[in-house]
Amino acid sequence: MFRLLQIGALLAGLVYGNAAGAAVEKISLYSHYTTAPFAVEGVPPQLSYTVRLAAWLSDKSAGRYLFEARQMPRLRLNRIVAQADWQGVVAWANPLWFADPERQRFLWSNALMSDRNVLVSRQVDQLLFPAQEPAQPLHLGAISGHFYADLEPFMQRGLLLREDAQNDLSNVRKLQHGRVDIVVLQASSLAYLRAQMTDFDQWARVSPTLQPSYQRYLFTSTANPQLMAFLQQTLVQLAQAPEWAELQAVP
């Protein structure tokens, strides 16, 4: 279905181009996530919010844009957006994660969805962190290039020793085999991880202590005000679409 939407958007763009003398503009829709629902590679298209969002935006542009979902490692994405003339849109981001708390470096959309981090440990270890500080430092499974504001104070005090992996599934497997003591996951990924590891709930413990929720946005270069205007207008329609209703609630 989503592939058909992309093809439909492309055909509409060709018609528009013939009529108005302008070709469809291809826009990279970047995600730096390596786990569903935001990953592009290694997951079925129907499970990728990024692929679905690219199809939706292409369809709503009526041939003006063709959005192409692209997965990009966070460190490489940092280098891309550091260029003054970079093109594209970064999805599922937050201003704090891209050193733009005042929203001056980039153009930011309205909030796309809410999410929060969750902490997972092994049931057998009976860890009470973060409600109770550990007597010994804990090895934390994290994702390379990701920043965890809520956990940073514990890392600075030496209570959490960070060990990075490339994706959440790798971290959960490390946890299962005792190579780390605790992992941090995004709540929006839990359903996918449970589907990948059918015994997850038999050995894993999701901390009942809720981490603060945060908002996810789209952003683009300050050189693209027309593109951002389109995104803002289209996200209003997206928020009203039943198939995207699950994105609006905090997990």
The counted number of beta strands is: 10
Q: How many domains make up the 3D coordinates?
A: 2
Helix percent band: 25-40%
Low-confidence stretches: 1-21
Radius of gyration: 20 Å
- Estimate the strand proportion: 15-25%
Would you identify the CATH architecture of the largest domain?
A: 3-Layer(aba) Sandwich
Give the overall pLDDT as a whole number.
88
H and E order: HEHEHEEEEHEHEHHEEH
CATH topology of the largest domain: D-Maltodextrin-Binding Protein, domain 2
- Distinct helical segment count: 8
Q: Can you say what the CATH homologous superfamily of the largest domain is?
A: Periplasmic binding protein-like II
Describe this structure in words.
The chain has 251 residues and is an alpha/beta fold. It is built from 8 helices and 10 strands. The protein has helices spanning 2-20, 49-60, 74-81, 152-156, 168-176, 190-196, 200-203, 225-239, and strands at residues 25-31, 65-71, 89-93, 106-108, 113-122, 138-143, 160-165, 182-186, 204-206, 213-221. The two termini are 27 Å apart. Residues 1-21 have low confidence and may be disordered.
